[in-house]
């Protein structure tokens, strides 16, 4: 029994010690392999660094602006990964996470502004998360902006400009979003964040210490849309500000729809709703 416990403790210790940090700056440096700030991967490889990471790994992203693609393909987005924490807001010299500073807010920007000036050709989503994502997938310390999903609304289109959490059709999509600013995104529904739990799905992200502001929905849910029709879309929102979002029709700040025996019942703690507007239900 003692040998088993010793082996388990040793395995846990080795697993923790083997966790990697991958480093990304806008232009990259050195060998560009992401092994250190001196050899940082370039911004165009940010998604690749996330994909290469395993459980307990971290991706450290320096201040600057990063795009989902270097092409004009509006369908491409960043995607989070289970067990991987993606940290933004570094100056590019830190050796410890405690050295990261948010005195002027997070300086790492994920932007959908991939084309010409203006939003007509911007990415449909800045971040698009699919089925199977748990709260061990963490995004911490970013500005998420400039998406425009202006496609006619379907089961997957026109939804969630800034962040689209798709747990529909029996899946789950429950990432953790911390210390982020989600701003200046557009979509038909859920311009800032769309949580899709449709048809026995689950989309219950954890949103902590975030600002969701100046997002515009051409139909409903300017800031957040929780779509729990015949499923569950019930995020937990803590210590956040949902400000100055707009919906042309319903719910300037947050739209909750849990029809057909579904559930859209968010838990909201220490959160401010202010100056959100819509034709019906400016706040919620």
Describe the protein in words.
This protein is mainly beta and 284 residues long. It has helices at residues 2-17, 46-52; strands spanning 21-24, 58-62, 64-66, 85-90, 108-111, 127-129, 138-140, 142-145, 148-149, 163-166, 176-178, 181-183, 186-189, 193-196, 206-208, 211-213, 216-220, 224-227, 236-238, 241-243, 246-250, 254-257, 267-269, 272-274, 277-280. β1, α2 (46-52) and β2 form a beta-alpha-beta unit. The longest helix is centred in the first third of the chain and has 16 residues, at 2-17. It is globular and about 55 Å long. 50% of the residues are buried.
Query: What is the ordering of alpha helices and beta strands?
Result: HEHEEEEEEEEEEEEEEEEEEEEEEEE
Strand content: 25-35%
Q: Return residue spans where pLDDT drops below 50 for at least 5 consecutive residues.
A: 1-16
Shape label:
globular
**Backbone structural class:** mainly beta
Biggest sheet, open or closed, and with what strands and sense? 8 strands, parallel
N→C terminal distance = 56 Å
Round the mean pLDDT to the nearest integer and report it: 94
Biggest sheet: strands side by side, in what order?
1-2-4-7-11-15-19-23
Whole-angstrom Rg: 19 Å
């Amino acid at each position: 029994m003692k040998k088993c416990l010793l082996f388990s403790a040793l395995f846990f210790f080795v697993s923790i010690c083997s966790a990697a940090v991958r480093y990304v700056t806008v232009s990259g440096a050195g060998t560009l392999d992401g092994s250190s700030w001196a050899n940082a991967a370039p911004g165009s490889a940010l998604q690749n660094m996330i994909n290469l990471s395993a459980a307990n790994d971290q991706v450290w992203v320096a201040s600057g602006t990063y795009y989902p693609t270097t092409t004009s393909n509006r369908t491409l987005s960043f995607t989070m990964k289970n067990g991987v924490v993606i940290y933004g807001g570094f100056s590019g010299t830190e050796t410890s996470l405690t050295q990261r500073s948010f005195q002027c807010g997070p300086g790492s920007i994920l932007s959908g502004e991939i084309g010409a000036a203006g939003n007509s050709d911007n990415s449909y989503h800045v971040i698009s998360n699919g089925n199977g994502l748990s709260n061990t997938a963490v995004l911490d310390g970013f500005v998420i902006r400039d998406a425009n999903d202006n496609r006619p609304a379907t089961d997957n289109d026109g939804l969630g400009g800034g962040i689209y959490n798709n747990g529909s059709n029996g899946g789950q999509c429950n990432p953790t979003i911390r210390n982020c600013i989600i701003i200046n995104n557009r979509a038909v529904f859920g311009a800032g964040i769309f949580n899709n739990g449709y048809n026995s799905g689950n989309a219950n992200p954890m949103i902590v210490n975030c600002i969701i502001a100046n997002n515009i929905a051409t139909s409903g849910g300017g800031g957040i849309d929780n779509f729990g029709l015949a499923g569950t879309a019930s995020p937990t929102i803590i210590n956040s500000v949902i400000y100055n979002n707009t919906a042309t029709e319903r719910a300037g700040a947050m739209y909750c729809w849990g029809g057909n025996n579904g559930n859209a019942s968010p838990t909201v703690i220490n959160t401010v709703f202010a100056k959100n507007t819509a034709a019906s239900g400016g706040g919620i």
